[in-house]
Amino acid sequence: MSTLGTLSVIFDLDGTLVDSEPNYYEAGRRTLAEYGVPDFSWAEHERYVGISTRETITDWRERYGLRAGVEELLAVKNRRYLELARTSTRVYPEMRAFVELLADEGVPMAVASGSSPEAIGAVLAGTGLDAYLRTVVSADEVAHGKPAPDVFLEAARRLGADPGDCVVLEDAAPGALAAHAAGMRCIAIPYVAAQADAAEFATAGLLLRGGQREFTARAAYAWLTRTARPA
After folding, report:
1. In the chain, at which end, N or C, are there fewer CB atoms within 10 A of the end residue's CB?
2. How many CB atoms lie within 10 A of CB 222?
3. Helix 117-127 crosses helix 70-85 at what angle (to 10 degrees)?
4. What is the pTM for the complete model shown?
């Protein structure tokens, strides 16, 4: 039995395990340019961090007056993203170390992401994380994306875990809110530094205000050990 008792760990993918936001930004920029919206900026992209691709595109249509349908835009953006994801996704080194540490301990793990199943699969396969993270839930598979708790609750169900025994790792405010709503503890690693003071992050059991610069596998593991519930 692991020293972490009945713990299961659920990872957000984008911005948490991997630095995929540059790829999402570039895919979004190219897609919008194709549909007549030039100069989509990184600052504009940041408002969509942590929100599912479908919800992002729904907002784009209203914000930019796009005539194309959601399904068409979704297909174009996903195609562009997959081209980038397969070849140029970077795993945060300390996150890879953390996943390997938990795997050595036999801790059940899952990924719960707002990305499409195809995008999640491409990133995990392209980075080798699929060797450790075989339980995967996309927001496309549940009724509501984050900040609703659906993806995390489904991940717990597939792991056979009680939500109260799950710890979520998240980089975005909607995900932290979703973890809280699911009744799970959260390690929050804000991707957008300016959002560290967001009320949603105040619910986290461990908030690393410095984001990935502050995260280490050993420190996170030590926190889990201190707060683990006995089996």
Report:
1. N
2. 11
3. 0
4. 0.88
Helix (H, G, I), strand (E, B) or coil at 133: coil
Across the beta sheet with 8-11, what order do the strands follow? Answer: 135-138, 109-113, 8-11, 166-170, 185-188, 206-207
- DSSP H or E segment with residue 22: helix 21-34
State how far the Cα of 190 lies from the Cα of 204, in Å rounded to an integer. 11
Residue 9 in 3-state DSSP?
Answer: strand
For residues 2 and 36, give the distance between their C-alpha atoms in angstroms, rounded to a whole number: 54
Residues 6+ apart with CB under 8 A from 141: 117, 151, 154
Residue 132, Cβ neighbours under 10 Å: how many?
15
Instruction: Find the catalytic residue in 12, 14, 140, 150.
Output: 12
Residues 186 and 204 sit within 8 Å (Cβ to Cβ): yes
**If the chain, 231 residues long, is cut into consecutive pieces of 10 residues, what is the mean pLDDT of each piece?**
84 95 94 97 91 91 96 94 88 98 96 92 94 96 95 98 97 96 98 90 96 97 87 60
**Residue 165 bears catalytic tag:** no
Closest by CA to 27, choosing from 92, 90, 91, 74, is 74
Q: What is the pLDDT of residue 131?
A: 97
Give Cβ neighbours of residue 58 (< 8 Å, ≥ 6 apart): 70
